[in-house]
Each structure stands twice: as structure tokens, then as C-alpha cells.
Amino acid sequence: MSKTALTKLIKTELAIVKITTDNRKFLTEGEALIHEVVLQEKRNKNRSWEEMKQELVNIVLEVLKKNRWGIYFQNEPMQSLPMKDSLSTLYKVNEVSTDEFDEAIKMQFDKESERKNECQENQAKDLPIDNELLNGTKKM
Fold it and tell me: Quick one: 83 exposed, middle or buried, by C-beta within 10 A (0-12, 13-18, 19+)?
């Protein structure tokens, strides 16, 4: 091959590569933009989910504070405190801290969300079979 033919090959193989925030590479700017929009929508959805969880936790905590209610450990609601004289005993309510309560609620939301997603995925997998059964077109 001649030098000009080789030069033409090099020029046609070199291109500008667009890299998105998740380090995926695209040759065209349009594809990169579309992918970046999808990533941004996912980030916004996750952010709004976190904000909704926090808002619900804040509402529950506000109701507890407003009504002067407390949450205690069910297996050990009272905790005995040591006293200098052994005749009298002082007890303290073994209550749950608001930080523990906050984390427990958020974890439960995440578990329920995962369970819901799994159910939807399973339903999506079963959907083509159901359509075949409804149409009477199940292939044997």
C-alpha cells in the first residue's frame, strides 16, 4: 500500500469519542446526550426517592413529638439503674433514639421497594406466557 492510502485509513479510523459520566464511550454526540439524559433521569429519580423517604420519616417524627409519644424496645421496655443503697430501685424507660428510628424506617422503605421491583420483574417475565394463554396461541 502507498503512503497516501495508509494516511486515508488512519484519518478515517480516528474519531472524537464522547465519554459520559458513567465512563461509557460514544462516537456520536447525539447518542452520548441521550445516554446522559437517561443517567440524569435516574439520578433525579433516586434523589426524589431519598427526599420522599426523608419527608415521611420527618412527618412520623413530628407526630411523635407533637403528641409527646415515645418508642421503646419491646423486649426490654424498662431498664433498672444501679443505686447506692440496694433497697431502692430506679427504673428508666429504654427508649429508641430518633436516629435509630429514622434509619429503621428508611431501611424498611428500601426493602419494600426492592420487593416491589422484584414482583414487577417477575410479572414482566410471566407476561408473554399470559398473553399466549389469553390468545390461545401457546406453542407446544
Answer: exposed
pTM of the model: 0.54
Residues facing residue 78 across a β-bridge = 93
Task: Using DSSP bridges, classify how beta strands 25-26 and 90-93 pair: parallel, antiparallel or unpaired.
Answer: unpaired
Mind listing the pLDDT tens digit for each residue in 31-74?
888 988 899 999 998 898 889 889 998 999 899 889 888 888 88
What is the C-alpha to C-alpha distance for residues 56 and 106, in angstroms, rounded to an integer? 9
User: What does residue 88 show for φ and ψ, rounded to 5 degrees?
Assistant: -100, 150
Cell numbers 447525539: residue: 30
Handedness of CA 29, 34, 35, 37 (dihedral sign): positive
